[in-house]
């Protein structure tokens, strides 16, 4: 069995925004941009955060439900 390291690397650094209402990726519940920011929920204990692209991070931060460290 061979490992496709390029695919693994892409998935490891891909934006994890799954908000179907996010204006960055309208019409789909998954963003395909590279994840470059880390945001954390403010309404629950969130130690791991979510890796998202800069545009999705801006939308998340504007919602008031996320923070950056």
User: How many separate domains?
Assistant: 1
Helical segment tally?
2
Helix-residue proportion: 25-40%
How many whole angstroms does the radius of gyration measure?
A: 13 Å
Instruction: Please state the overall shape, judged from the principal axes of the Cα atoms.
Output: globular
**Low-pLDDT runs:** none
What's the mean pLDDT score?
86
N→C terminal distance? 40 Å
Topology, number of strands: 3
Output the helix-strand order.
HEEHE
Instruction: Report the portion of residues in β strands.
Output: 5-15%
Please describe the biggest sheet, giving its number of strands, its sense, and whether it closes into a barrel.
3 strands, antiparallel
Structural class: alpha+beta
Strand order of the largest sheet: 2-1-3
Task: Identify the notable features of this structure and list them briefly.
single chain, 69 residues, alpha+beta, 2 helices, 3 strands, 14% strand
């Amino acid at each position: 069995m061979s490992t496709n390291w390029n695919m693994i690397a892409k998935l490891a650094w891909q934006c994890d925004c799954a908000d179907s209402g996010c204006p960055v990726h309208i019409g789909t519940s998954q963003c395909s941009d590279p994840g470059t920011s880390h945001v954390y929920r403010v309404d629950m204990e969130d130690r791991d955060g979510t890796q998202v692209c800069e545009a999705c991070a801006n939308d998340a931060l504007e919602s008031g439900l996320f923070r950056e460290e």
